Amino acid sequence: MIFLIKFKIRFDRKVYTLINKIRYLGILNTESNVVIEKRVSIKPFLGSKKSLKVELRKNSLLKHDIIIQGTGLFVLGENSYVSSFCVIGVNEKIVIGNNVMIADSVSIRDTDHNFDDLNSDMISQGINTSEIIIKDNVWIGYGAVITKGVVINEGAIIAANAVVTKDVPPNSIVGGVPAKVIKTRNE
User: Fold this and answer.
1) Residue segments in the chain with a per-residue pLDDT below the cut of 70
2) Non-local CB neighbours of 131 within 8 Å, separated by 6+ positions
3) Which pLDDT does position 187 carry in this prediction?
């Protein structure tokens, strides 16, 4: 019985990966052994001069119910995964390194809306963007929010529900709103 369940899971993953590769042809570029589960939505913003590009490196995984949207470049490194119910908003560039674990319900967005002009509606003031870099061997906990312009360095751990607004030093554990260094991994 367990063999049949494992077989079905592997079979379903292969089918959904193939369907998504066909559905997002021209947007999605994949290397070997990539897995894309069901209900992954890759949404380019219409009417933009730039186009959304998604690159998945070897052995990467997009679990079910993920949204990747925007007009920029999203790269997921080797042996890295994005877990269920995450939202990736990319209008410039988001690069995730190798061996990165991203838990459920994480939001990663390289864009903010402008709001400085009090005489104009915020919706008409446009956006500003700044790339996000998440380096190798990082663990991002459940519900964390990663904001524009942030670099998360090697070996860092982002606590559940943290809001990361500034760069994270290597091997640091950060948490809170806004996220602050709690300790380093070698302490």
Assistant:
1) none
2) 92, 93, 94, 95, 110, 148, 149
3) 76
Helix%, strand%, coil% for the chain, nearest 5? 15, 35, 50
DSSP labels, 22-72: HHTBTTEEE-TT-EE-TT-EEEEPTT-SS--EEEE-TT-EE-SS-EEEESS
| Coil vs helix vs strand at 181 | strand
β partners of residue 184: 172
Edge-to-edge order in the sheet of strand 61-62 = 35-36, 61-62, 81-82, 101-102, 139-140, 157-158, 172-175, 180-184
Catalytic residues: 113
How far apart are alpha carbons 8 and 107 in whole angstroms? 30
pTM of the predicted model over 0.90:
yes
